[in-house]
């Protein structure tokens, strides 16, 4: 067990044992094709649904005899780890759910399923929570606007800023001597701003709408690791609490395509601290 320190206090079990859950394709395990529809889509409803199901079937874990908080850990299989999506779960939810697959790889589960004669043993992995066109979920009509460069020069037209993501290079429909990337989406002016690759990098972000798992709140600056997308390796950061109640995350190395509206998830070694929404 890692005895980490945050706010000058150790994050550890008073009993000397880990009261933990590991996030491995346990509740939702699926990601949208459009990055803007990921962590928020899977935020609370799946966990509430699972808790209700478990309670009805008498499978709720009784935590009343324990006086330590439940700690969340990434799953054993990094490729299937769901901690980036499920960091928004509350202590009340964590202590009342069973996540039985966190200590296994997908291959190990397949072998068990095959041994038990289950038909799903060789079922292909699912990748998306929705098989159709994501535009059907938005239920909006096209809203034409301009694609502009950083100087405001109009380079083309779009049919809705929701069709683009920060860092997107393909499908812009404009020509340039050098590759262009989406670097900003301006809702107020309905503009998609593009720039060259160097404009996609930054070493800091501000996060709002925070949810902490390992601590109540951040009281002073800490050093830890962070992920701004589910598939990346955690990057070294410093995290500063702001007077507004938000946090500033400062990366040791420049990061590409930090996207507002996405989640930044903080880790202290193998412990999920919490996270928030990128402003």
The major pleated sheet works out as: 6 strands, antiparallel, barrel
- Would you identify the regions where 5 or more consecutive residues have pLDDT less than 50? 12-18, 25-68
Proportion of beta-strand residues: 25-35%
Order of helices and strands: EEEHEHHHHEEEEEEEEEE
Count helical runs. Answer: 5
Q: Residue-averaged pLDDT, rounded? A: 80
Number of strands: 14
| Gross morphology | globular
Helix content: 10-25%
In summary, what is this structure?
The protein is of the alpha+beta class and 279 residues long. The chain contains 5 helices and 14 strands.
What does this structure look like?
The chain has a six-stranded antiparallel β-barrel with strand order 9-12-11-10-13-14. It has a four-stranded mixed beta sheet with strand order 6-5-8-7, with no helix packed on it. It is built from five helices and 14 strands. It is globular and about 60 Å long. The protein is α+β, with helices and mostly antiparallel strands. Helix content is 12%, strand content 30%. β7 and β8 (191-195) form a beta hairpin.
């Amino acid at each position: 067990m890692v005895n980490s320190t945050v706010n000058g206090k150790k994050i550890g079990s008073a009993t000397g044992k880990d009261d933990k859950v590991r996030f491995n394709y346990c509740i939702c395990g699926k990601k949208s094709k459009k990055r803007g529809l990921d962590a928020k889509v899977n935020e609370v409803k799946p966990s509430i649904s699972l808790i209700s199901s478990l309670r009805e079937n008498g499978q709720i874990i009784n935590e009343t005899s324990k006086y330590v908080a439940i700690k969340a850990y990434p799953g054993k299989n990094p490729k299937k780890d769901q901690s980036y999506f499920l960091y928004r779960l509350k202590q009340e939810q964590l202590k009342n759910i069973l996540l039985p697959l966190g200590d296994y790889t997908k291959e190990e589960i397949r072998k068990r399923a095959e041994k038990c004669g289950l038909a799903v043993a060789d079922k292909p992995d699912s990748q998306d929570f929705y098989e159709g066109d994501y535009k059907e979920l938005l239920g909006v009509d096209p809203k034409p606007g301009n694609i502009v460069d950083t100087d405001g020069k109009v380079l083309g037209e779009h049919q809705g800023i929701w069709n683009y993501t920060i860092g997107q290079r393909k499908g812009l429909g404009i020509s340039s001597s050098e590759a262009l990337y989406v670097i900003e989406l301006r809702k107020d002016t309905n503009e998609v701003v593009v720039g060259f690759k160097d404009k996609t990098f930054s070493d800091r972000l501000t996060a709002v709408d925070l949810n902490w798992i390992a601590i109540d709140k951040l009281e002073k600056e800490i050093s830890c690791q962070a992920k701004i997308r589910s598939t990346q390796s955690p990057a070294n950061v410093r995290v500063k609490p702001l007077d507004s109640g938000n946090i500033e995350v400062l990366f040791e190395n420049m990061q590409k395509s930090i996207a507002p509206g996405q989640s930044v998830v903080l880790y202290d070694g193998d412990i999920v601290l919490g996270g928030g929404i990128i402003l």
